[in-house]
Every structure is written in structure tokens, then in C-alpha cells.
Amino acid sequence: MSFARRSTIVAVVAALLCGLAYGVGWASQAGSLPWQRPAEDAGTVPVRTVVDRPVSHLPDEEPTTDKAEKPEKPEKPTDRPEPPVEPTLQPGPTLVAPGDSGDEVRDLQARLAQIDWFNADVTGYYGDVTTEAVRGFQAKREIPVTGEVDQRTLDRLAAMTSEPTTAELTNQTTTNSPGAIDPRCLEGRVLCVDKSSSTLRWVVDGEVQKTLDARFGGSGTPTREGEFSVYQMSRDHVSSLYDTSMPFAMFFSGGQAVHYSPDFAAVGYGGASHGCVNIRDYDGVAWLFDQVQIGDKVVVYWS
């Protein structure tokens, strides 16, 4: 290549480089170079701003400007809680009720009388007086108050009372006060019969074991007085002379005996025996019969 041509090429290249240098310098002064532009004009690369607080929403949720709602406080009870309600006792099936009559009612009345809930004659009829007595008994013992007798009422009454005697069932409760005891009654085993006080005392070695009301023979057939002994005993005796029942008979003088008398239990002292010593307490004389033995002494006297 000729020298002239080579010089021409060099001159052209130099001119181009000078022009380029001039353009860069001008652009630098104008602040229009890419690395000198503001962030919003810096091309397609965005600048992410970091916020120093936790993000309260999930990435896919729209952010909210409202404050989180506070949970509602439970309302304070205005009244104290009521105590648990205890189950109410219910009455059982009725066993005896107003309008009934018979031995069950008689037993009920006698038992209520023993604990001072029944203050009338034992009649065997369940009327207003018996109803009120039952109601009072039930209320006192926290039993459903109905005035009718159920099993709970009957069981409670039975636990507080004893089997009514015939005297109690027939309004002949013992009230007699025995008189002075005869000296002959103070030794051994003695049926001590006091005609003055209408009593019989069972005495063992000077100690009175039991006292029972007694009734004696009338003017035509008086009970003999004196000292005797038991010579015969018959639990279910029936008189061959008078054809009458003489339960728990303890014979001491001929045909005269100490025994239970249903007539004495029914009518009291309005009647008389045919010379026997009548006892009106069925349970009492039944107990006595089991204590007495053949040969035990019997003393009949006036105190």
C-alpha cells in the first residue's frame, strides 16, 4: 500500500475517534448516560424497597389499611350462677289412704299414737285426723307430704315404733299404778296379783320384771285370794265350761287361771271374768307365758 493511502486511512480513523470522544464528553456533561439516569428511568430493572416491619398479609392477599378488629370481650354475667337443683323426692305407690279401714289403719293409728302424732281413739278408719297425723309425720321426716302412706312412710314409722299391743289397738293403754308389793312376792318366781290396783307383776327374786293390767271375777264368781302355784299351762286353751277362748292360760286354783281376754281388751273394766285373772295386753301375756314355769308361785292379795 502506498504511503499516501495509508495516511488517509489513519486520518479518517483519528477523525472518527475524535468525534466519538466529543460525543461522550457532551453526554457526560448533560447527565444522559445510562448509569446517570434516575431509578424510575433506569430501564426495565425495578428497585425494591425494604420495609422494616412484619407483613400482616399473605403474599397473595390484598393489603388492608384497616386495623385488625379486636376480639369482643365476653359479657360479664349479671347474676351469680344458680346452685344445682337437687332432685325432688317422689312419693311411692299408695299402700293406705284416706277412706280406708281395717287392721292396717288401726295399726297405723296406734303407731302414730306411740310417738304423739295421733291423739284420738284408735278406730281403724282413715279419716281427716289420721290424714293430718300422717302429713305431720311426713313433713317432720322429709318424706313427700301427701297424707297417704307409701312404703317409705311405713318403713320410717316402723323403725321408730314397736308392734302395738292389743291394749293400744283397742284404746286400753295401761294406766294403772301398782300398790305395795306383798312380802310373799319377794322370794323366788312369783305372779304377784294386786286386786286393789288391778295389776299383775311378774317378780323374780324381788325384782319386778313386768307389770300388766288385770281384771278379776265378778261378785258371783270372785277370784280367790291367797298363795297358790301354777299347775297347768295351755297356750291355746278353750274353756270347756263356757266355750270361750283363754289364750296363754296359766292355771293356779281349780279352773281359775291367768290368761289373755279379748273381752277385756275390747270393753275394759265394764265386764268381769268367771274368777280368772284376765290380761288385756296380748303381747305382754304372750311374753309372760314364755317366762313362767310349772310350780311358780301365784299370790293374789289386796294391797
List the total number of helices: 7
Low-confidence stretches: 39-43, 45-53
Quick one: CATH superfamily of one domain? L,D-transpeptidase catalytic domain-like
Report the order of strands and helices: HHHHHEEEEEEEHEHE
Question: How would you sum up the major sheet?
Answer: 9 strands, mixed
Return the CATH class of one domain: Mainly Beta
Mean pLDDT: 82
Percentage of residues in helical conformation: 25-40%
Instruction: Tell me which oligomeric state these chains represent.
Output: single chain
The CATH architecture of one domain can be named as Beta Barrel
> Could you name the CATH topology of one domain?
L,D-transpeptidase catalytic domain-like
The separation of the N and C termini measures 189 Å
Question: What structural class do helix, strand and pairing data support?
Answer: alpha+beta
Strand order of the largest sheet: 4-9-1-2-3-8-7-6-5
Rg calculated over all Cα atoms: 60 Å
- In total, the number of strands is 9
Strand content: 15-25%
- Overall shape: it is rod-shaped
